[in-house]
Amino acid sequence: MAGADFWNDNEAAQETIAAANKIKAWTEPVAELEAKLGDVEVYSEMAEEDDEAASEAKKALSAAGKLIERLETNFMLGGPDDDKGAILELNPGAGGVDSMDWAEMLMRMYVRFLEREDWTHTVTDLQPAEEAGIKHVSIEIRAPYAYGYLKGESGVHRLVRISPFDAQNRRQTSFASCFVYPLVDSDIEIEIDEKDLRVDTYRASGAGGQHVNKTDSAIRITHEPSGIVVQCQNERSQHRNRESAMNMLRARLYQQKLEEEQSKLDELRGGAMKIDFGSQIRSYVLHPYTKVKDHRTEVETGDTQRVLDGDIDLFVQSFLRASGKGA
């Protein structure tokens, strides 16, 4: 990768980088683990005479334990698409404006998680709601094993809180759905006939300055045989938006293909669920007590703020452990 002619063939260079990133997903945690264990050894030798060193030894040991958990989780990512990037979509459900606000809170939670992981991600489609929150968001995540880590987030997420939109301060239950699809590389054969596509252009809405309001840069693509509709308005260039929309369409068609071949609709997409009572995979309670509970694994925590700030490792890893390798 450091060679002077590395970028002469852009496609080959991207393939090399992708392969290197998959290797780094293993080698970097191992190298960091070795360093932490070295710290534990050094601080432990000093601990008998230095209380501060004993404290540092505990911190290093705790950090080493988390790295071991991450490596153990990697071993469980053996599914055919687990090593791929991902597309994450959020939609509000029952609950009116509260659910739209809840969908935006979930978007913030996942973006914080992606930032903590230092995963490259792009919001490809964001549709703000009129009063508060969002109507829809699609996030493209380009990181090794992103789909494997996040596939268990697919499903309905429930929020219980005192509604900030209720003048009488009543408790409100809101719902939002999360769907996670594998990000399909262009080298995977998904046949898309241009004659099957209806492409519409329109002016992007929301933030973005004067440009988005003056040009028809946003793209909506309808795949008529399947009825799948994707859209992108994030980029200023119509060409870039079309490219992102086609990536989303390819991912959706690939997922549909997997569902047909493997009969795993419920595993891959969470089923054709209603986004309301009785279908949630996880509950986030902010009133009258604080708790986040995953209903599939029974794992829970009282630190709701930490979870909403993006620390969802507890739930991601417990799901993978419960579902087993390659779930």
What does the model show?
The protein has 327 residues and is α+β, with helices and mostly antiparallel strands. The chain has three domains: 6-76; 86-182 and 263-323, 2-Layer Sandwich (Alpha-Beta Plaits), CATH 3.30.70.1660; 194-250, Double Stranded RNA Binding Domain. Helix content is 43%, strand content 23%. The chain contains nine helices and eleven strands. The strands form two sheets. An eight-stranded mixed beta sheet has the order 2-3-1-5-4-9-10-11, with helices on both faces. A three-stranded antiparallel beta sheet has the order 6-7-8, with helices on one face. Helix 1 (10-47) packs antiparallel against helix 2. The protein starts with 9 loop residues before the first helix and ends with a helix. Residues 207-213 and 264-272 have low confidence and may be disordered.
